[in-house]
Write the structure tokens for this entry.
Amino acid sequence: MTKKYISFLYRSVRSGDNYSARSGNDWFIRVCEPYAKKYPSNIKLCHHLVEAMIEMRYFERAEDLIALIKTTDKSEMPKIYEGDIQFAKGNIEAAKEIWNSVNKTDHKGQYEAGERFNRIGGYDKAIECFENFFAAANVPRDLSSTYSLAFLYTKLGKYQKTIDMWQRILDVLASDYGIVEGTQCDWPRKEIQKLKAKL
């Protein structure tokens, strides 16, 4: 089962209305769980399965799969999912404590923790995690967290901070990717112009 096919399966079952997404998740779990247990090194499949299980509230099955993938997945994503389970159970403080314990040098873990804090209104913590993500990135640096910061600072009305993030995007595009013109640069420049008018 290739990674591309797994992603296609996962996207197809999670599209549509809530009913079809739930029934699709159930189908995805039934079809793929035996394969994941046999091949826990297929990290992408295991991650998709854990997400589907949490959404379906199959917490014990999700916990069993997390324990299995910990043998091959040395990232902080199993910990992120443990926090997701606590959150889904209504144990909000326990979830935040787990997400807060993610290793600060784990690139993806910090981004995922930041997204979760952002969703629940923990904006200061989200900002910290997004900055940790950027600090841990290797050149050429991933700008996902910087875009998230730009949107978050806009939501918070911190326009100078937002400008700083759009400028960071332009700087990294130039220094790490050699991109100084085109649509990737046009968007940040337009946003900076609009924001400067608000200051």
